[in-house]
Amino acid sequence: MDELRYQIDLLNAMNQKLSRNEKAYRAILDTSSNAFLYYSFEDDRLEVIGNWSFFFDFSIKEVKDVTQILECVEEKYVLPLREIAYLEKTGIEFAIQEAMLTESKKWIEFEVTVNYNELKQPLEKILCVRDITKFKMQNDELAYMAYYDILTGLYNRNYFVRVLGEWLRKAEATKDVVAVMFIDIDDFRKINDSLGIIAGDEVVQLFGQQLKEFESDKVIVSHFNSDLYCIAIYAPYGNRSVEFIYNSICDNLRKPIRLIGQEEMNLSVSVGVAEYPEAAGTALELINCAEIVMFRAKNQGKGTIQYFDAKILNEFLENVTIENKLKDAVYNENFSLYFQPQFETSTKTLRGVEALIRWKDDKGSFISPSVFIPIAERNGAIVPIGNWVVEESLKAYAAWRNKYNYPLVMSINISAIQYKRPDFVANLMRLLEEYDIQPSQVELEITESVLIDDFARIIDKMRVLRNYGLRVSLDDFGTGFSSLSYLKNLPIDTLKIDKSFIDTVVCDNSTKVITESIILMAKKLNFETVAEGVETEEQYEYLKQIKCDTIQGYLFGKPSSFEEIEQLLEKVE
Ligand code: C2E
Ligand code: CA
Ligand code: CA
């Protein structure tokens, strides 16, 4: 009897515990944001637990109601969902599938678990519905960022490279051409500097929108960064040929653009084009080739298109090699200075020397300053190189002065970048003091290109230099603006007439006329005139006749070493 009572008490206690547990589980499930369907195959019992109404506005009472779920998801998820909703038919225990609800646009995840007995007969099935909208959104955002450029909404570089790679593989099989257009907005830095980066961003966006027009299943447009864009065209012809797209871009740009709160402005672009398979075989190489020829377009005066050509690539590669060597050369000060004498035309007496830099690379081959100075200007190496030239020429000058006391003028070529540095004047003055040199014995040669950027500021600086007593000379005159009218506003002492005039001055009548009027005008303005590149006796005679003050050229003196100039000074003393 006692035994029986004990058994009953035990059962009651266990039941109580079970129902307490069940209560707890239910409470947890009901407050969970998920919804569950429990189905028992044994007694055909179906139960809905949890947050069902959050997902669906119908209730499920019997197994056949489950098909209603399939009616409220987007079409493409119906089949995969059906498969996992009746998972027991496959004998699989667990499966998961996501879907989007058509009405609410919620993203849901279905998780189905089926428990089987030893005979592989299904016992129970649990279907869990979860809200994954937030997670999906984050994923979409990441996916968006992975493919698109935020500023323009165009594809980004990574995606572009991927698609281009796929296109090239396809083109290899179909023997098609794939063209890449590399596009760069001209003078974008100026826009950014003068109007601010917000205006710059607006320009990038507006132009990006214009490019988007060309997008199709065979044309992909991307924004790389800053003002760089790239377009790839699969099998370019007809209205997706490079010419067509380029002309349309130019047509669009003919209409000025207006930025918020700014004046109207006109844009132009430089475009480089490279095609598979002619230029390169891989996506990155093709983009590189297009970029390289774009630089050529830029150098040719902007607003132009340049097609790939192996010569341009080779020149570029050579420049890259020079650029790399140049870094070492600057570090090791692998340069030397030559000096080309200048003579007074009427008396042939020595007037001064022009310092000209020389560079022999490690293998002893000579690289012309006309080649490496422009590279040094682009990569900034011109600053240390220029400083070196200034100091070395002043040192040479001081040594000659101490030894010979001859009133030489030391002409030093100054690059625009050097000239624009805020510390340029102060450094120069410090060196003049250090070597105890009269500023009037030093002449700075600058080219017209210096004047292009910021005329007023450049002129002010010239005045400062001249107030200190330094001489300023305008180099290569006739190759830039070639305008005589702006000369009168220039605070300069000397005008160097470019060699290209001297070359033809004795045989070409129009050159004669121009050279004579340059000299006449210069005389009126009180400038000294120097003729560069005088190679023949006839040229000399003619220049003497038209009263050019000074001549410089191979005829009377090639660029010479420090010691050779000493020998010259020895003689004139
Ligand atoms: P540039 O300032 O016009 O220098 C004159 C160039 O013409 C020199 O070439 C000189 O050697 C050459 N030349 C002089 N007379 C004759 C002649 O009768 N016939 C011929 N065919 N050529 C003649 P170089 O030394 O090769 O310099 C080339 C350019 O490199 C210079 O042109 C100048 O723009 C630049 N450069 C040279 N040294 C420096 C430097 O120290 N600093 C900077 N910033 N540029 C330099
Ligand atoms: Ca010069
Ligand atoms: Ca010159």
Task: Explain how this protein is built.
- This protein is α/β, with parallel strands linked by helices and 573 residues long.
- The protein folds into three domains: 11-136, Beta-Lactamase (2-Layer Sandwich), CATH 3.30.450; 148-308, Reverse transcriptase/Diguanylate cyclase domain (Alpha-Beta Plaits), CATH 3.30.70; 340-355 and 382-572, EAL domain (TIM Barrel).
- The chain is built from 21 helices and 21 strands.
- The strands form four sheets. Strands 13-14-16-17-18-19-20-21 form an eight-stranded mixed β-barrel, surrounded by five helices. Strands 2-1-5-4-3 form a five-stranded antiparallel β-sheet, sandwiched between helices. The chain has a five-stranded mixed β-sheet with strand order 7-8-6-11-12, with helices on both faces.
- Strand 4 (107-116) and strand 5 (122-131) form a beta hairpin.
- Helix 7 (188-195) crosses helix 8 and helix 11 (310-332) packs across helix 12 (369-379).
- The longest helix is centred in the N-terminal third of the chain and has 30 residues, at 2-31.
- The protein starts with a helix and ends with a helix.
- The relative contact order is 0.05.
- The structure holds ligand C2E and calcium ion (CA) (2 copies).
- Ligand C2E binds at residues 340, 355-357, 368-370, 373, 386, 389, 413, 415, 475-476, 532-535, 552-554, 559.
- Residues 340, 355-357, 368-370, 373, 386, 389, 413, 415, 475-476, 532-535, 552-554, 559 line the site of ligand C2E.
